[in-house]
Amino acid sequence: MPDWRTVQQAVIGEVLPDIGRRNRSMGAFPKPRYKKSDVGRGRADKAVGLTKNVARVPQSVVKRVSAGGCHSRKELTRQMSYVLRDEALTASWSNQIGVERSFEEEGIARVVADWGGSWVGAPKRGHTDHIILSFPKGTDAGLAEEIAREWGQEVFGSGFYADRFRYVAALHHNTEHVHAHFVVDKVGMDHEAFLSISRYSEINYDMMRELHAQIASEHGLALNATPRLSRGLIENAPRETDVQAALQEGREPYVEPLSFVQRIQREASLRSYAADYRSLAGIASMLDDTEGDGFAARLFQGASAAAAHLLKGEPIVSDFADVNDIPADTIDPAGRIAAAREALISEAQMAWTKIRNMEPGPERVELEGQFADQARSTTHLIGQDPFFQSYAQGLDRERDPYAVAPVALLQERARGDGRFAAEADAALDAISDRLADAFERFESRFEWGDTNAEEMAARFAAADRSAAQINEWRPDDPDRRAEWIEMEREMRAEAEKIVASVPVGRDLLEDLARQELMEAERTDRLSDIAALDRLAKEVRADMSDGDLDRVGRGEMDPLIEKINDPGLRAAVGSELRNMGRVEDGQDLDVRDSEPVGRYRDLASVHERAAHRAERGRGRDEDMDHVIDF
Fold first, then answer.
1. CA 614, 617, 623, 625: dihedral to nearest 10 degrees?
2. Where is this region: Disordered (predicted)?
3. CA trace torsion 530, 535, 541, 545 (10° rounding)
4. 61 forms bridges with which residues in the sheet?
5. Cα separation of 333 and 48, whole Å?
6. Between the CA of residue 402 and those of 411, 453, 467, what are the distances in Å?
7. pLDDT for 558 beyond 50
8. Phi/psi at 170 (5° precision)
9. Which residue has the higher pLDDT, 24 or 50?
10. 205-218 and 141-152 helices cross at what angle (nearest 10)?
11. Which of 168, 292, 311, 597 is deepest in the core (most CB within 10 A)?
């Protein structure tokens, strides 16, 4: 029995210690362990993967040997002889007919003849692939063989990923890292599918690494399979071929430099991962360290430190204690994170109950909104919990009976630190006050839903709502519920009139109109965009009859000083022309408005041009930052 209590286990523990070994004699598995939709997300749990990053658990290493594909039987013979050479070999096996069995050197000629007989054409990368599965220092060779056998049969021999592929495998223990070589025939056994390994294929590097980590965990060996960026590694990794050449030549491997755009994109990803680590620290703060090993405290400190390092563009530096000081049987991040998840869900449910038990008013709506924000920021680490999902997902405008354009945009401006923040905040206060006054006429029915006019006004003035919230706001009694829904429609119509009448500055109104235009569907009508409709009417009221006639003839000069954005200016010009066609005595709202499509495109083109100009002005300063980084 091999000793599996490795250094990695001392840090991370036996996550799944009791899972039985599968029968590998026929290479059959009850179901695929990996789904294509799992690519890049980490199969087990994102929180566990980040915890392993903080604890410096070794990463899975799966390499495809560059130029390792064989183009002829002679090359395959030479490669097989190298992989199966006695001085490196610890064990060898194959699945020549889909059944895994040991492999002897005298079988090379038979394999070469068998594989070569099905080769057609001259594929650029050859008729075979050469894959290396590597293990951390100190891994027992017997354990590595068991993991490698299961991994190879799952990836290439199970038939779950494109086809079943023949391979010959060999375990080597001639370096400090025990590793397995897989020479794989690219012609599938069942459907003659051609093996492709790329980010877009069923068999890809994320899939192979994540399966390696999962199967290793089932055997008691802790591995991780997280992206380089999640560990703060922003630069490109050196090519494996150059690593070997550099070792022989006594130099550093060549690393392809990042382009300016690549660096900006990766820095943005680092900020996203930093937010994930902050969320992980929040989960860790809910762990109860009753065993006295300080795991939660170290996880909180390590996750917080990881977030800080990533925000500086630096690799993660773990704050975990020395692994030799940690009892191996007390460290189980999967169990700890699962316990924290359950505690967090329980705490969230209690918090929501307390919020709902408050006296009705704007403060309760504000706390509900904060609760939804917290749910959104945590749910990707917590997982698909129904309670969190129900409150984290806001409704789109079409399905939200409380949505009034452009309230959500005003909320976005008010929460930010831009030049419109104070003005947007003042507008929202005015909207809430006017809504509360207007809703007093519904007061007799508000008691059905344990609310009042001020709270209903705050609900309409909030940025968004979830279906679960709206369901809880409505009465349980079916008759009253139907009447309540009708009342919501009346209040929404009232709210749309009030929002349209609250004064806002021309610059803010133009900003809102442009944003609504960018977010609208191409088939929507310009008159359906509330802020744009209001802007067009205000501009019309400010213009002389002569200027309106010029716009009606297609001239845009009268609008240049009134509207800065060219795309928005064109849309307003279209609306003014359509208003001019409305006969006297008719409502302007009955005009035949144009579709949004081309005007949204114009606004988008102008936005991209403005961003390019802005980047051009700051290029020297930005490049200095890149060099310093």
1. -70
2. 583-629
3. -110
4. 134
5. 6
6. 14, 14, 11
7. yes
8. -145, 135
9. 50
10. 130
11. 168
Q: Answer whether 531's CB lies under 8 Å from 406's CB.
A: yes
Give the whole-angstrom CA distance, residue 179 versus residue 176. 9
Given pLDDT bands bounded at 50, 70 and 90, which one contains residue 147?
very high
Per-position DSSP letters for 12-49, written without gaps between them: H--SSTTPPPPP-SS---SS-S--GGGTTT-SS-HHHH
Q: Distance (Å, rounded) from C-alpha 290 to C-alpha 467?
A: 39
Q: Are 278 and 286 in contact (CB under 8 A)?
A: no
| Peptide bond preceding 406 in cis form (omega within 30 of 0) | yes
Q: Return the residue matching tokens 């809910």.
A: 286
Classify burial at 84, counting beta carbons within 10 Å of its beta carbon; exposed 0-12, middle 13-18, buried 19 or more: buried
pLDDT of residue 27: 40
Q: What are phi and psi of 130, to 5 degrees?
A: -120, 110
> What whole-number distance in Å separates Cα of residue 143 and Cα of residue 11?
18
Q: Which residues contact 159 (CB under 8 A, 6 or more apart)?
A: 190
Give me 617's structure tokens: 């002005």
Please classify residue 94 by burial: count the beta carbons closer than 10 Å to its beta carbon, then call 0-12 exposed, 13-18 middle and 19+ buried: buried
Residue bearing tokens 């590793």: 179
Spatial contact of 286 and 348, defined as CB atoms under 8 Å apart: no
Contact 294, 282 (CB under 8 A): no
* Pick from 181, 158, 3: nearest CA to 82: 181
DSSP SS3 for 181: strand
As a whole number of angstroms, the longest Cα–Cα distance in the chain is 98
Contacts of 39 (CB under 8 A, 6+ apart): 199, 204, 206, 207
Question: How does DSSP assign 59-127, residue by residue?
Answer: BPEEEE-TT---SSHHHHHHHHHHHT-TTTEEEEEE-TTSS-EE--GGGHHHHHHHHHTT--S--TT-S
Of residues 437, 471, 241, 469, the one with CA closest to residue 367: 469
Instruction: Name residues whose C-beta falls within 8 Å of residue 470's C-beta, 6 or more positions apart in sequence.
Output: 395, 400, 401, 402
For residues 535 and 513, is the Cβ–Cβ distance under 8 A? yes
Q: Which residue has the tokens 């993660």?
A: 316
Token look-up 């008010």 returns: 414
Percent of the chain predicted with pLDDT > 70: 80
Distance CA 506, CA 511 (A): 9
Q: Which position has the token pair 């399966």?
A: 211
Residue with tokens 């409505």: 474
pLDDT digits (tens, 9 = 90+) for 585-607: 667 776 788 898 888 888 777 66
Q: CA-CA distance, 129 to 38, in Å (whole number)?
A: 24
Q: Are 123 and 91 in contact (CB under 8 A)?
A: no
Counted residue by residue, the chain has a size of 629
Give the separation between CA 533 and CA 516, rounded to whole angstroms: 11
Q: How far apart are CA 408 and CA 570, in angstroms?
A: 25
The burial class, CB within 10 Å (0-12 / 13-18 / 19+), for 270 is buried
- Can you give the pTM of this predicted structure? 0.57
Contact status, residue 517 vs residue 571, Cβ threshold 8 Å: yes
DSSP bridge partners of 203: 197
